[in-house]
Design brief:
The chain is mainly beta and 363 residues long. It is built from 3 helices and 21 strands.
Amino acid sequence: MEVALKAKGAIEDQVAYSLKMERKRTLSLDLKGVAESPLTERRRVEATFSLQSGAELQKWVVALLGEPSSSSWQVPSGLELRGSAHYSQEELRTDFRMAQAGGGADHGALTLHAYYRPGRDEYFADIRAKGLELQPFFPKDTIGSLSATINLEGRGKDFFDRRSRALFYLDIDSISYRQYRLRDITLLSQLKENQLFAAINSENEGLRLAAQSDILLRRDSISGSINVLVDTLIPSVIGMDLPILQSGKLELRSTVVSDLKQRHRFQGEIENFVLVTDKGTIYPKNSYLTFNSSESALGAEVASGDLSLHFAAKNGLNDFSARIKKVIEEAQKSLSDSVGQVNMAPWIHYYPDMELRFEMGRD
């Protein structure tokens, strides 16, 4: 690899620098800028950069990160990255544009403008993708091109602090996978005075839905509502492998309360439920869902008309989870050690104290 580093100026005042790195078929990097007062707290650094990736850059990155050679991601060759960066005690800022090989001025590109201001704990990011081909980055996946916009801005990183605020916006103009494509999906989320609001909307032929949540965040608890309206769901149109289900729709209204430890409560109702199957159309009655947990008990129920499924356990959420994990471990150990006979005795010691009941009426 060829490396050339140049610097000119007084270290206690101002230094102009440039760095060039080049290795055939790996990368080409050109970095230059100015550093003012680099030895003091008033230091200010400006830089511009240009990077071109080669076919062998992936090997270097994998070795640097310690990733397995069979990693599901890769750094494609032909990427061109150009931008600038700024550093000072008041602000960290960067702007760059990434272009893919063969992409035009408005295709196969990703742009970013972002800054962070430590003194005020403020942050901002604007990311835009235009016809960005994701397959070269994830060769083992079936994902294709992406056109989307992401905006993020706020103050404070502690979401439980009343003074923190944040606004997140995602607009997916289009994303392709296999031979399918989704368009016009938007997500908006806002945090203000401990109130977290989020809404998602999709207007696709195979998926028309609207959902929103409104959650109050406290350090010792959360509470709020989650509502979902699925107006149209056609699995075959959006690439879901559900041959029995041709289409469906439903409305969910629910509330959730949690102490962020073991006490949780969820209550929901599903109405206007319609399922179109290969055997005909099904109109389930309104369904009611409940879930409760504490340090000493668990309970859940799903009821629809004369059908109901009840679950109860005399174990707290953490104890129940630990017991289930231990039962699985003992079962795997017993199955691997046994020859023709399975000893269930070790499992029984860890079984949770639970009851499962299914009831069905005449209707």
